[in-house]
Fold:
Amino acid sequence: MNYFLAFLVGGIICVAVQILMDHTKLLPGRIMVLLVCTGALLGALGVYEPFAKWAGAGATVPLLGFGNVLFQGVKEAVDKEGMIGLFKGGFTASAVGISAALIFGYLASFIFKPKMK
Structure:
């Protein structure tokens, strides 16, 4: 049931993004920034954490989850280290995920032949 729920929630988020792309003049980069900022805002309001516990990977994997991770990292770092945590917390909290994306993307470029358009 967890897999179904994660697939359903992640799919709904993707459908909402596709609707934004199809029916607005927003560029994909701006939609991505909107998703990250929305995730951070929902995390700050305390709404995202219960939603993520309920939805599982369907809520934590998309860019909304990335925004929430950035917010949680900044919040924790500011509590521990003060204002320097504003600059340090987001990087510390998301470093593993970003590193994994870079490493796996690099490895995939060896398996698949990337081409410039």
Observations:
- The CA atoms of residues 20 and 92 lie 31 Å apart.
- Helices lie at 2-23, 28-44, 48-55, 57-60, 63-81, 85-111.
